[in-house]
Amino acid sequence: xxxxxxxxxxxxxxxxxxxxxxxxxxxxxxxxxxxxxxxxxxxxxxxxxxxxxxxxxxxxxxxxxxxxxxxxxxxxxxxxxxxxxxxxxxxxxxxxxxxxxxxxxxxxxxxxxxxxxxxxxxxxxxxxxxxxxxxxxxxxxxxxxxxxxxxxxxxxxxxxxxxxxxxxxxxxxxxxxxxxxxxxxxxxxxxxxxxxxxxxxxxxxxxxxxxxxxxxxxxxxxxxxxxxxxxxxxxx
Length: 236
Fold this sequence. Notes:
CATH class of the largest domain: Alpha Beta
CATH superfamily of the largest domain: P-loop containing nucleotide triphosphate hydrolases
Helix content: 25-40%
Distance between the termini: 27 Å
CATH architecture of the largest domain: 3-Layer(aba) Sandwich
Strand content: 15-25%
Shape: elongated
Number of strands: 9
Radius of gyration: 19 Å
Mean pLDDT: 88
CATH topology of the largest domain: Rossmann fold
Oligomer: single chain
Strand order of the largest sheet: 2-3-4-1-5-6-7
């Protein structure tokens, strides 16, 4: 799965990716400011997550557009203390809506350890964040709640496909299960093939087209059966 990590300048995107990857991320920066991208891989409940961090300065819009292509979800970083960055955050939020319409978003309200850090309710009001978008308070510098923010996003992302995945579970590992699934969904094979390829690319399923069998991956089965397992108790 590809997750875009974006937000305003100095909101903590690079630090968040370093925390999620246990320090094993790549950053192309200049004087501690990202000028191209951050990249790293995180494994959450056996789901492999590719994290792409964007530069936050306004003139890097085209680069943010390029990095957003194909993203399954967006982890949006907000500087909880710096109200002056809200204008930049709103501008980048509008970019996300333009580049990735309908893609799930979770907000990480970062820098909660600093004096006068705003609570999630205040950030939602200041930035006009829709009520259905989760906001998770984080401290990227120490890693506090950072993984939880990603877990919330993953849950929202997987739940978007939950109805389909539950139907797919009926024919998991079944001989000619693909044909049975096609009948259940009442769609043509071409459309089903495209969707199964999309799910396979993201690690949701494994498909054997010769035998028309597919298997849901163990991580996805876990989320289907007990979706709340992907979450941990918040510590902030």
